[in-house]
Automatic annotation (TrEMBL), chain A:
Family note: Belongs to the methylaspartate mutase GlmS subunit family.
HAMAP family named in the record: Me_Asp_mutase_S
Key word Transmembrane present: no
Native species: Carboxydothermus islandicus
Protein name per UniProt: Glutamate mutase sigma subunit
Automatic annotation (TrEMBL), chain B:
Protein name, per record: MutL protein
Source domain of life: Bacteria
NCBIfam families reported for this sequence: accessory_GlmL (NF040745), glmL_fam (TIGR01319)
């Protein structure tokens, strides 16, 4: 597989680090070049990192329930930076409590995310989705 | 007795230091006006004459020089994102001892290109993209630069995957070198190869271009830019006294060096931003006691108020130094004003050099993010350069660089010991250490603890 850059990070004031580390590990093993920004990552940091690394996809995590506010406007910033083509994925515990996931998915897709993943998603599902979307099959 | 001669060919003065190499002892000092515009050897010979008047008759075993004359090593840095590859390139240039005239990000505009031509830098450091990352901007900027009549050298230190293509673009059009990427990935700053190449270009090309080659009729070699010699001196001093901060207030700029890791000192702090070089140098081009003194006055109104200096007194003094930039304070009041100005430079430069903590409110309470170096625990603060060394109360001037309770988010040193490079030996130690580290270390005994 030719080198594919990915950017990874937990958005906003969120400090949940464990899932992020597991994703980094799994995606690296799957052959991607992962640029992990860690926790507490701002929207601007995602945009800048994607630009420098020529990322093909950006995987945003949000665990602490404030995903909706933190992610709003991210896609617009990517468009401003000329990064319209970069895939945007989001996952984790995106909203507070147990809301209906189809509704959550609709909301985040309307915000410009290409894929939205429910709580407890295994890394393999993310890898599978990336391979499909990036034509790496 | 084996003697070494060390020369700092500066923009105004050429300074000489004679060191007895076995004991690493400073035995004589001299200074003369620099004459690089006519023939640099004239000033050097004046310096040697003065040393022989002081009784130094022996022949020197080594004769080494550094230089900041003829504008110093002048660079511009070009990157992609301002706080990523542009910042990495700027850091590399500064720690190589360069004067960074300007930095540019994203695609160079026609105005940027005009400005670069006018600045006529010795080296253009061209970065952009992590390895395997963005190539577009690096290639585009290389193309634009290749169409200019550039006299300096383009040093390419961007995305490895684009290096061959960039070389193809520049080949036959401008003088260029290719270095490994200064930011191979977002968490790795790789400045050493870039520094080495900058030094190589300095030795091979810039020494000649600036009329310094003639100096090598007298000295063995013009080794490096003076700021690099000082940084090397500071690194050596840190091996002796531990992590340190070095500050140098000059007529046009204030330099701060920190030789320290700068990792967070309190728990629960996450580091953000680019990694920091262990030996870091920043230069504040708007903070100086003569050419740039206008800004200094603006930044530090309260300092004058606290020292009881009236605006008439201040303006009177400023008049004098505008008319005669080499004027030195005479009366107690003038010394008081000069001290206040120096304090403002120290404080402002330290505020910019030190890292900072940003408070972030999370659902679970307060959390902290650190940008830059945490210097709160650094135990040595060293002053060098005329204004600090000749200050009446140097300890009070240096104290302007301390941590402040009312701005606790700026991570300045809390209670460092104070030192002064009274004999101006740091550059000489830096030069000497290149081939005799032990002697260089001993020479640093002349750095005095206050
Ligand atoms: C450990 C933990 C903490 C630790 C975190 C330590 C650390 N440094 O990581 C601490 C104690 C600090 C903490 C604090 C808080 N926590 Co907490 N925490 C947890 C806990 C128990 C486990 C999280 C974890 O590590 N899971 C294991 C990893 C592997 O799973 P993961 O993070 O979900 O990630 C996986 C997948 O989701 C997926 N994934 C994640 N992101 C993405 C992105 C994409 C694109 C894709 C494809 C996949 C994907 O891949 C990962 C690997 O499989 C969970 C409950 C739980 N059982 O999940 C609560 C939980 C996440 N926390 C919660 C809360 C509310 C908080 C606090 C607000 C509590 C408070 N008021 O103090 C604070 C917030 C602090 C902050 N600023 O972020 C809530 C969130 C509620 C919500 N979203 O509705 C949870 C769900 C507990 C609960 N049921 O109420 N927490």
């Amino acid at each position: 597989m030719k080198e594919v850059n990915l950017v990874l990070g937990v958005i906003g004031a969120d400090v949940h680090a464990i899932g992020n580390k597991i994703l980094e590990y799994a995606l690296t093993n799957a052959g991607f070049k992962v640029h992990n920004l860690g926790v507490m990552v701002s929207q601007e940091e995602f945009v800048k990192a994607a630009l420098e690394t020529d990322a093909k996809a950006v995987l945003v995590s949000s665990l602490y329930g404030h995903g909706e506010i933190d992610c709003r406007g991210l896609k617009e910033k990517f468009i401003e930076a000329g990064l319209d083509d970069v895939l945007l994925y989001v996952g984790g515990n995106l909203v507070v409590g147990k809301q209906d996931f189809t509704e959550v998915e609709r909301k985040f897709k309307a915000m410009g995310f290409d894929r939205v993943f429910p709580p407890g998603t295994m890394p393999e599902e993310a890898i599978q989705a990336l391979k499909e979307d990036l034509g790496l099959m | 007795m084996t003697l070494g001669l060390f020369l700092d060919i500066g923009s105004t003065y050429t300074k000489g230091r004679v060191v007895e190499l076995e004991r690493g002892e400073l035995v004589a000092s001299a200074k003369a006006y620099t004459t690089v515009e006519t023939d640099v050897t004239l000033g050097i010979n004046d310096c040697l004459l003065e040393l022989s008047r002081q009784g130094i008759k022996e022949k020197y075993d080594i004769k080494l020089a550094s230089s900041s004359a003829a504008g110093g090593l002048r660079m511009v840095a070009v990157g992609l994102v301002r706080d990523l590859t542009t910042e990495a390139a700027k850091k590399a240039a500064l720690t190589a001892g360069a004067r960074v005239e300007k930095t540019y990000s994203y695609e160079l505009t026609p105005e940027d290109l005009d400005e670069i031509l006018a600045l006529n830098p010795d080296i253009i450091l061209l970065a952009g993209g992590t390895d395997g990352g963005n190539k577009k901007y690096l290639l585009e900027n290389a193309k634009k630069l290749s169409r200019l009549k550039i006299k300096g050298t383009i040093l390419v230190a961007g995305n490895r995957s684009a290096a061959t293509e960039v070389a193809g673009i520049l080949e036959g059009k401008v003088d260029f070198r290719i270095a490994p990427n200064v930011l191979p990935d977002l968490n790795t700053l790789n400045i050493e190869p870039v520094q080495n190449l900058i030094r190589q270009i300095f030795l091979e090309k810039i020494v000649e271009a600036k009329g310094l080659k003639k100096a090598e009729k007298i000295v063995d070699k013009v080794m490096m830019p003076t700021p690099l010699a000082v940084l090397k001196g500071a690194e050596l001093l840190a091996q002796k006294i531990g992590e340190l901060i070095l500050i140098d207030v000059g007529g046009a700029t204030t330099d701060v060096h920190s030789v320290a890791k700068g990792l967070p000192t309190s728990s629960g702090v996450s580091l953000k931003g680019l990694p920091e070089p262990y030996a870091k140098r920043t230069v504040e081009g708007d903070l100086g006691l003569r050419r740039t003194v206008k800004n200094v006055v603006e930044y530090g109104q309260e300092e004058f108020y606290n020292s009881g200096i009236t605006s008439e007194q201040l303006n009177g003094y400023l008049e004098k130094i505008y008319r005669n930039p080499t004027y030195l304070p005479q009366t107690p009041r003038e010394k008081e004003i000069e001290k206040a100005l120096t304090r403002i430079c120290v404080k402002t430069a330290m505020n910019r050099h030190a890292g900072r903590l940003e408070e972030i409110w999370t659902p679970a309470g307060k959390s902290f993010v650190q940008y830059g170096k945490d210097l709160t625990g650094v135990e040595a603060l060293v002053g060098t350069g005329g204004p600090l060394v000749y200050a009446e109360e140097p300890e009070k001037v240096l104290a302007a660089g301390f941590f402040e309770e009312n701005s606790p988010h700026i991570l300045k040193p809390k209670k460092p010991e104070l030192y002064l490079d009274t004999e101006y030996v740091l550059f000489a130690a830096g030069l000497l250490a290149e081939n005799n580290r032990e002697a260089g270390l001993k020479l640093l005994n002349s750095v005095k603890k206050l």
